[in-house]
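Ticket 4471: requesting a sanity check on a complex prediction with 6-O-phosphono-beta-D-fructofuranose. Repro inputs:
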Amino acid sequence: MSTRIAVFTAGGDAPGLNAVIRAVTRTAILKHGWEVYGIRDGLDGVLLDRPNGVEQLTLERVTDILPYGGTILGTVNKMDPRLYVREGGRVIVQEWAKKRLLEWVEQNSIRGIVAIGGDGTMNISYQLFEAGVPIVGVPKTIDNDLLGTDQTFGFDSAIDVATDALDRLRTTAKSLKRVMILEVMGRNAGWIALHAGIAGGAHVILIPEIPFRLEAVCQALHHRWKRGSQYALVVVAEAAHPVGGEPIYHEIGGTRRLGGVGEWLARRIHAECGYEARALVLGHLQRGGSPSAFDRILATQYGVAAVGCVAEGTFGVIVGLRGDRIQTVPMADVVGRQKLVAPDHPLVKTGRDLGISFGDEPV
Ligand code: F6P
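Returned structure tokens:
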């Protein structure tokens, strides 16, 4: 039986990627006595035949990387047209690329590949699995929008950053009697806004799953001012939008990216509610830096579990958290679907009970 395993990171970075790489490497070497190979920049290192596109990962190479953000293997979140094509919104791996990876796996006697990434990576990994590549997925994203796990790693660290930002915005908001708006990431999901909003004591939380009405936001602010608290904290998810409206995008280098709703909201609150407002886009601060203790533990558990899957020959699955257990879920059950915040999610209810406005109904 082969004693070689490979690992790669793909998609946007998230705190904890290095913790998974370390856990995979240590478990493979120390528990099983295998060799570990890191593919650089997603699968580009192999598929584009890059010089030094694959490196052997040793215990020395992964020493000390646990607390560091980013990924020592590099990552890509732009689909290279040589490798992938878009068909009806879905990314399809080119046939030659599947064959090339399979050939590499066979030539190098790789017994399994650990793919660390978000929904895009899981979609690609599932296609590779169907083509015969022995692959196991590890769910990463600050957005927490992957099915098959209670939580993705990276999410907890992002909430910490957003909560800290709210704590800092509170003192400036209070001093100047302003509405401070924090725009957070999350793509089409409001998980970061919801959790950080509760943790940071926000007064208004706007998420894409609950379209808002400006009148309801103004009413919540008036209510607060009348009660004597003349400042407010608003957390808005980047894809949040008014009832009947659309999320706001901007274009960077030919690609459409979510962003701008915070600034839009600041202007509208100023014009229509009559309060001075300022917006802060938290942006990539949510993705950079050291993982939280929770994310380090989760990422480590995922890495160890993924190697366990390779050892027992379980492929085409992702490892995930269910309660306090790590379980596996078939990739087929999770790809192409997103985990969104249900409007009646218990944390939304908690927020409403606390008097937080979600911008949809009077508080
Ligand atoms: O999926 C992670 C994420 O940070 C989203 O929250 C955000 O919309 C997007 O990636 C930003 O992507 P980029 O780094 O390519 O601008």
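Notes from triage: Residues 4-153+291-323 form a domain with the Rossmann fold fold (CATH 3.40.50.450). Leaving this open until the requester confirms.
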